[in-house]
Amino acid sequence: MTDHGNHDRRHWMSTVAAGAVAATCGASSIAAPPPPRPVAAVVTAYERGLHADVLIGKILEGWEQKGGPRPLLTLSSMYVDQFTDRDMARAMAKKYDVPIFDTIEGAVTVGGNSVPVDGVISIGEHGTYPRNEKGQVLHPRRRFFKGITDAFEKYGRVVPVFNDKHLGPVWKDAKWMYDRARELKVPFMAGTSMTVGYRKPQIEIPMGCEIEAAVGVGYSGLDIYGSHALDFFQWHAERRKNAEHGVARVRCLEGAAVWKAMDEGIVSQEAFDAALAAVPHSDGDVRKQKNVTLFLFHYTDGLTGAVVMLPGFSRGTSIALKLRENKEIIATRFDERTEPRYPHFAWLLKGIERMVHTGEPSYPVERTLLSSGILDRALTSRIKGYRELRTPELEINYTAVDYPWAPKPKLTSHPPVDM
After folding, report:
1. pTM of the model
2. How many whole angstroms separate alpha carbon 130 and alpha carbon 112?
3. Other CB atoms within 10 A of residue 238 CB
4. Quick one: 6-195 is in which CATH superfamily?
């Protein structure tokens, strides 16, 4: 089965036609868009509002999921791990003539004996999966990546892969995925939509700045939303001078120990106050909040990172920073917008589109490898009596890139998008 579907052909033909019209009209200064590239999707579950819907749905139905402009990608195939009673995968597959395969290899090969797609989107999020003793939901991200890369190895072709959210979730799986990608030279990206979504307010964190203090605030579950908070935090922290060389020590604290760390100056009270003020939150004294957890981590260059999780009190994700060149602390939050159809996922998909067309990651997967490792080590500290853990495994070196966030780049721009 090598046909990518009538929808793919219509999309390609309309793209070519648009380019022909521009050329006929003498619009030589307007470059025709490149042809759409086919991708496969490997997902845990596909319901309205889940990550499969707001990512894959944008490929099928446009950036706003109601027709109109869409990414220069087409969906050739799907593998779905769990079909729920609210499943959309079968209906969408039928509507858009996209085959669903019962194996990951089938999806990657579109039922054939080669890899005809130019990218794979792996969404190991949502669905019903067990938790371990650390409270991590054991989403099958490693299993998905193994199935995808085994198909690459079997059929002798490697294409870019995007992994939704953090790697792992346990460290050994996160590191295995990273090492496997390097072994096979897979262009690999991962992470949360928060790093490319809207910010409020817009603040400038120049590349190469000197960060003296940084404190983040997160909300909801330590595993599921801690990954968002840490990835968002790391996007900002990696912009500092001479970064990134990783994290040397990680510790988790809870309850009164969190406030003690602030009182002793280990965590900047001023930066925490600014980060909390940047997000909607409950009234009252935050120090009386029962559910408070601190992820405390020390970078190898001496910067202390701190993310305070406030489920039930905070209603958002933020960060506050003290830059050496600024007298005042600056803060921003991820501005979560629900309409049209969770637009931050459109900008995440824009980064994926760019990688599929260029064959190069839009930003380093090492950022998410590091934030995944911090989260796993913090949750390990939590069940080991809040001990500080030395983390030579997290001394991860990489060079940050100045990739934009919403509303840049324009969704209608043609890949490759200039950064």
Report:
1. 0.91
2. 33
3. 22
4. NAD(P)-binding Rossmann-like Domain (3.40.50.720)
